Known about the structure:
- The complex is a heterodimer.
- The N and C termini of chain A lie far apart (31 Å).
- The model of chain A has no long low-confidence stretch (mean pLDDT 92).
- By secondary structure, chain A is mainly β.
- Helix content of chain A is 0%, strand content 53%.
- In chain A, the strands form two sheets. In chain A, strands 2, 4, 5, 6, 9, 10 and 11 form a seven-stranded mixed sheet that branches. Chain A has a four-stranded antiparallel sheet with strand order 1-3-8-7, with no helix packed on it.
- Chain A is globular and about 35 Å long.
- Chain A has no helices and eleven strands.
- Chain B is mostly beta strands.
- Chain B is built from no helices and eleven strands.
- Chain B has strands at 4-7, 10-14, 19-25, 33-38, 45-50, 56-59, 62-67, 72-77, 86-93, 98-100, 104-109.
- In chain B, the strands form two sheets. In chain B, strands 2, 4, 5, 9, 10 and 11 form a six-stranded mixed sheet that branches. In chain B, strands 1-3-8-7-6 form a five-stranded antiparallel sheet, with no helix packed on it.
- In chain B, a hairpin with a 6-residue loop joins strand 4 (33-38) and strand 5.
- Chain B is globular.
- The N and C termini of chain B lie far apart (38 Å).
- The mean pLDDT of chain B is 94.
- Chains A and B meet through strand 5 and strand 10 of A and strand 5 and strand 10 of B.
Amino acid sequence: DSGVTQTPKHLITATGQRVTLRCSPRSGDLSVYWYQQSLDQGLQFLIQYYNGEERAKGNILERFSAQQFPDLHSELNLSSLELGDSALYFCASSVVGLHNSPLHFGNGTRLTVT
Amino acid sequence: QQQVKQSPQSLIVQKGGISIINCAYENTAFDYFPWYQQFPGKGPALLIAIRPDVSEKKEGRFTISFNKSAKQFSLHIMDSQPGDSATYFCAASGGNQFYFGTGTSLTVIP
Lengths: 114, 110
């Protein structure tokens, strides 16, 4: 068990809808990363937060947004959903958020858009 | 642009054999190279990692070999076991972001 908790485990929704994915990092970890994993795309970095502030942004669509709250949990909001957004979404946390801190992943949220 | 290139995409090995997965990178600013193991329905889990100041790191049956001049690193799994069947991802980091390879699906046949 990595100590990173993601909810819900599964989410099925229709195109055009909006969903929120939640992540609680490991105790003591200040940094949260969001990744999207599709069958043919591997792990794609979306966004990183450190202690409530956005630290780095990757290939995140404008329809997607995230935030990290004062208690350090994070939420990823996906709106105007399209079929192509169906994927596994992983949250990872690290102690400091610097490159020498390993990432610890949650078990992901599987999003299916119908 | 793929920052880290991983091969092969899939690998089938007999029990007791050696599994070898290769990765290559371009950015010389990368200075941390972890490998992750992912089982179905689970998130990737850190397996072993190396920094470029050493050429090899071994933990149990898992060894990372690192060639700084060639900008390549590889994972060797000795005495491969059916329980090692999983997807393996290499990664590289030199700042805030981790760049992952596309993954290798390893199947160890009993």
